[in-house]
Design goal:
- The complex is a heterodimer of chains A (168) and B (324).
- In chain A, 25% of the residues lie in helices and 26% in strands.
- Chain A has helices spanning 2-11, 26-42, 94-104, 149-152; strands at residues 18-23, 47-51, 82-90, 111-119, 131-135, 143-147, 156-160.
- The two termini of chain A are 23 Å apart.
- Chain B has helices spanning 5-12, 28-42, 70-81, 102-110, 126-133, 149-163, 181-192, 221-225, 238-241, 249-256, 260-263, 286-289, 296-315, and strands at residues 59-64, 85-90, 116-121, 137-143, 170-174, 196-200, 216-218, 230-233, 271-273.
- In chain B, the strands form 2 sheets. Chain B has a 5-stranded parallel β-sheet.
- In chain B, strand 3, helix 5 (126-133) and strand 4 form a beta-alpha-beta unit.
- Classes of the chains: A alpha/beta (168), B alpha/beta (324).
- Chains A and B meet through strand 3, helix 3 and strand 6 of A and helix 1, helix 2 and helix 13 of B.
């Protein structure tokens, strides 16, 4: 996380127009921690926002109940800002695509970058991350679970097989 | 978030109903799910671009056999903000005037493959009949004197927003309880969410046996709203009632109209609600309708969010066969 923060700070030195937007749910916590780390380096507190991508998913209305929607909160204008989208796991890239569409509905940012804690490969869309905490090689039927202290009491990243039922 | 397993869990907790016919049939958890979803949707209406792509390619038909501006417009705006296509059919312009039955009209509409039909009809139970006959989801937008579920949901959303929770609150519904589907839906809803409910009005406008729904009955306005956290005035349908159910509009206003003077009986920071359209000077005085406790226009704003939530959840509901 610290390394990602310093990479961001290095690429955008002293830029107050930078903002971090976390993708629900873990992306929110990661964005807040990155903001804190960047503040320690640069002495500059970046604004943070939250995006819920549910309404922009491409697999909605496929004969299953719709997932519950939580609030999107971007409490600043995104026009001409530099925005870094933050998520926990980058997999197919479909969530990132949805987040980009959601973000564009709020305005026209000058630049959008992507920061992820874990890149597990298997992209289905032409999307790549600008900042990666950890690269993990996985098989497609495995799952990567990220747990954050803010939600689950401890930080951990789990790589689990297809039969996994929620035991740690 | 695209880990894999986590989104499966979120899906299992989702909404499974095909139709929204009444508040009576909903569980507390289902009501909560709609209200939480509506809270999330509210933000969309504050954006410059008030539209999300979620229901792209879905068709919503509003079929109204009774006049309505607010409810129909609200459903239409809600559907459009979710990118659904909307078609409005009202009785005066449809083949109903040529003698077609409700079921035939609905089957003909069904043949054009709509996804959701929003129905308002003067016969209680009409939406249930359509829901059984059609593959499309059916939303009850008011059936006779029975229910008006989305109105109660937007009322609950508004109160929850202002008071944090409905648990333990005291709601007083004032006016024509007997002919009010809004009252019935709100009684079911607020009771399920843990509020206490009183109904207040002249004996002629309160149905006998309403106590069986778990409400207290009052025939004196001051007594009825004493200590209330929320007071809801119902519309007096003057054209239908005057003469038969109370002597005159003026007399009704004197005994059951909400005025600043009477409202001193309520709890401090109490909310004033009205489902509209208002008869200013009859069931509510202008200074109360426009006063500090009034949330009447917020009800209308929240109506769009609630209807977006209902359309969204039903569009993901199960189409009958794989239920259970």
């Amino acid at each position: 996380m610290r390394r990602m923060a310093s990479q961001i700070a290095e690429r955008h030195p002293g830029e107050g127009d930078l903002a971090l937007v976390g993708i629900r749910t873990n992306g929110i916590y990661i964005a807040q921690r990155l903001a804190k780390e960047i503040e320690a380096i640069e002495g500059l507190r970046l604004e943070t926002g939250i995006i819920d991508v549910t309404l922009y998913r491409d697999d909605i209305s496929r004969g299953r109940p719709h997932p519950l929607v939580k609030r999107t909160e971007i409490p600043f204008p995104v026009d001409d800002r530099k925005i870094i989208l933050v998520d926990d796991v980058l997999f197919t890239g479909r969530t990132t695509r949805a987040a980009l569409d959601a973000l564009m509905d709020f305005g026209r940012p000058a630049l959008v970058e992507l920061a992820v804690l874990v890149d597990r490969g298997h992209r289905e869309l032409p999307i790549r991350a600008d900042y990666v905490g950890l690269e993990v090689s996985t098989s497609r039927d495995e799952s990567v679970i990220v747990r954050m202290e803010e939600a689950e009491g401890a930080d951990e990243v789990l790589l689990v097989g297809p039969g996994w039922k929620g035991e740690s | 978030m695209e880990g894999g397993v986590v989104s499966e869990v979120a899906w299992q907790k989702g909404w499974w109903r095909k139709d929204l016919l009444s508040i009576k049939e909903l569980s507390r958890e289902e009501i909560q799910m709609i209200l939480d979803t509506a809270d999330s949707f509210k933000e969309i209406s504050t954006r410059d671009i008030k539209k999300v792509p979620t229901l792209r390619g879905k068709t919503v038909i509003t079929l109204f056999y009774e006049p309505s501006t607010r409810t129909r417009t609200s459903f239409e705006i809600a559907a459009k903000r979710l990118s659904a296509d909307t078609i409005n059919i009202s009785v005066s312009t449809s083949s109903v005037v040529k003698g077609e039955t409700l079921l035939d009209t609905a089957l003909n509409l069904q043949a054009m493959e709509p996804d959701i039909i929003v129905l308002r009809h003067s016969a209680a139970g009409a939406p249930d009949m359509l829901a059984r006959a059609l593959k499309a989801s059916v939303i009850n937008a008011g059936d006779g004197f029975r229910e008006h579920p989305t109105q109660a949901l937007l009322d609950m959303m508004t109160v929850r927003e202002k008071k944090g929770s409905l648990e333990g609150l005291l709601l007083a519904i004032v006016g024509d309880i007997a002919h009010s589907r809004v009252a019935r839906s709100n009684i079911y809803g607020f009771k399920k969410m843990g509020a206490r409910v009183r109904v207040v009005g002249p004996g002629t406008l309160i149905p006998r046996g309403i106590e069986s729904l778990g409400v207290e009955v009052f025939h004196d306005l001051r007594e009825g709203i004493r200590g209330a956290d929320v007071v809801m005035a119902l519309r007096i349908q003057r054209e239908r009632l005057e003469g038969a159910f109370f002597p005159s509009e003026r007399e009704y206003a004197r005994f059951f109209g909400l005025s600043l003077d009477v409202l001193r009986e309520m709890a401090p920071n109490a909310l004033i609600m009205h489902p509209g359209p208002m008869n200013r000077g009859v069931e509510i005085t202008p200074d109360v309708a426009d006063g500090p406790g009034s949330v009447i226009l917020e009800q209308v704003t929240n109506g769009v969010a609630v209807r977006m939530a209902v359309l969204y959840l039903l569009a993901g509901g199960t189409r009958g066969e794989d239920l259970h």
